[in-house]
């Protein structure tokens, strides 16, 4: 598996670095966990209309359409067979959403089951 990072030069965003690091670790952990072996996980950051858009993408199994509206809910897990001991508490994306929103931003997922997921964060530039 490979990790590709692309970031526009000279973009600025004011964030609590420690808390935002928690967001990125969670998104990357999920992407790496669900990406197909031998595929690429990518991070892309760029300025767009007074915002910074960060996209974490994987080419994994994707998220079923019926689960997408719920993935940012506390304790929600797409894979119901996973237990806390085998991976996660179902809190990671809920926490990530709270942190992003506390920074004046938004986060959502675009996914096609069987093809992968894009986690898209938008933050105010500056």
From TrEMBL:
It catalyses: ATP + protein L-histidine = ADP + protein N-phospho-L-histidine. The lineage of its organism: Bacteria, Bacillati, Bacillota, Bacilli, Bacillales. Residues 1-126 form the Histidine kinase domain. InterPro entries: BphY/WalK/GraS-like, HATPase_C_sf, HATPase_dom, His_kinase_dom, Sig_transdc_His_kin-like_C. Coiled coil: none annotated. One of its GO terms (cellular component) is plasma membrane. Signal peptide: none annotated. Pfam families: HATPase_c. The keyword rRNA-binding does not apply. It comes from Parageobacillus thermoglucosidasius (Geobacillus thermoglucosidasius). GO terms for molecular function: ATP binding; phosphoprotein phosphatase activity; phosphorelay sensor kinase activity. It is an enzyme of class 2 (transferase). It is found in: Cell membrane. One of its GO terms (biological process) is cellular response to phosphate starvation. SMART domains: HATPase_c (SM00387). It is a multi-pass membrane protein. This is histidine kinase. Its EC number is 2.7.13.3. Keywords: ATP-binding, Kinase, Nucleotide-binding, Phosphoprotein, Transferase, Two-component regulatory system.
């Amino acid at each position: 598996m490979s990790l590709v990072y692309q970031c526009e030069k000279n973009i600025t965003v004011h964030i609590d670095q420690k808390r935002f690091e928690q967001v990125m670790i969670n998104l990357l952990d999920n992407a790496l966990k669900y990406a197909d072996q031998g595929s690429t996980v990518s991070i892309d950051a760029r300025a767009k209309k007074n915002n910074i858009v960060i996209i974490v993408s994987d080419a994994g199994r994707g998220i079923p359409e019926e689960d997408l509206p719920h993935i940012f809910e506390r304790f929600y897990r797409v894979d119901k067979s996973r237990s806390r001991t085998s991976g996660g508490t179902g809190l990671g994306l809920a926490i990530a959403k709270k942190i992003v929103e506390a920074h004046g931003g938004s986060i959502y997922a675009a996914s096609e089951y069987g093809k992968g997921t894009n986690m898209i964060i938008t933050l105010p530039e500056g």
